[in-house]
Design a protein that fits this description.
The chain is an alpha/beta fold. The protein has a single domain, classed as Alpha/Beta hydrolase fold, catalytic domain (Rossmann fold, 3-Layer(aba) Sandwich), CATH 3.40.50. Helices cover 35% and strands 18% of the residues. It has ten helices and nine strands. Helix 2 crosses helix 7. The radius of gyration is 17 Å and the shape is globular.
């Protein structure tokens, strides 16, 4: 379904018949289809899975900063249009930062907040092997014009994993301007106190077993948030081990500990 807001038009995957609502926010260069493998076993929830503006099949109206606070405001407008006053949030990677920004702005609306390997500290000039790092030390114009070249190494070969093929497909849908501006927001991460929001607003943090050495995952382990480790998975845990993700989601929303 399409939902018009002040900031643009959201494409929203909506499924499930439950009374409790779970909103899922995807990561940088991805789309709502990131979560497609977990939808079938969560049909007892009202699942709302938007493509964030500039990604997937969602589009912006005019100019848009793609700052986390503006993204959060756009999501809040979407929730208003859908008459969702009470809900739980699940944010993956960059979507985890957007989810924390939503909670920062309107915590009364959020019953439970789950994040999966969100960015927790600024990484500009740290030369981290991340998607956002590809926008460091390059102008927006150069990034946009060279976008296919910058991500040419992501094109999967015939033996590529399902997660790599899925990411490549959604990357082709992403607006290069959105990719650049969100990357800048991730590199600086200075719009609100993300570490404070992580420790005060988040109910559970999912980490892939293969991601333990990542800079943001290492930091997440030092916080006060309960950790749910997804066995055999890396950053793309919702594709690589959907069964464990579903189990962890149910544990969090039902109030049990890992």
């Amino acid at each position: 379904m399409l939902v018009e807001t002040q900031y643009g038009t959201f494409f929203v995957h909506k499924t499930g018949t439950g009374k409790r609502t779970l909103v899922m926010l995807h990561g940088l260069g991805s789309a709502g289809t990131t979560f497609a493998k977990i939808w079938p076993d969560l049909q007892d929830y009202n699942l709302v899975v938007p493509d964030l503006l500039g990604f997937g099949r969602s589009t912006v109206s005019g100019t848009f900063s793609y700052s986390f606070l503006d993204q959060a405001q756009s999501v809040l407008q979407l929730l208003d249009h859908l008459n969702l006053d009470t809900l739980s949030l699940l944010g993956h990677s960059m979507g985890g930062c957007v989810a924390m920004a939503v909670a920062h702005m309107d915590m009364a609306r959020v019953e439970k907040l789950i994040v999966a390997e969100p960015n927790l500290i600024p990484t500009r000039a740290l030369a981290t092997p991340s998607i956002s790092a590809r926008a460091d030390k390059i102008s927006e114009g150069d990034y946009v014009s060279r976008f296919p070249e910058i991500f040419s190494d992501f094109e999967p070969n015939k033996n590529g994993s399902i997660s790599s093929r899925l990411y490549w497909d959604t990357l082709q849908q992403a607006s290069p301007v959105a990719m650049y501006r969100v990357s800048q927001a991730l590199l600086d991460l200075n719009e609100f106190d993300v570490w404070k929001a992580y420790n005060t607003c988040v109910n559970a943090s999912f980490v892939g077993e293969r991601s333990i050495e990542g800079i943001h995952v290492k930091l997440s382990l030092t916080g006060s948030v309960p950790i749910y480790q997804i066995a055999g998975a890396g950053h793309n845990m919702f594709v690589e081990n959907p069964h464990s993700c579903i189990k962890a989601i149910r544990q969090v929303l039902d109030g049990t500990k890992p």
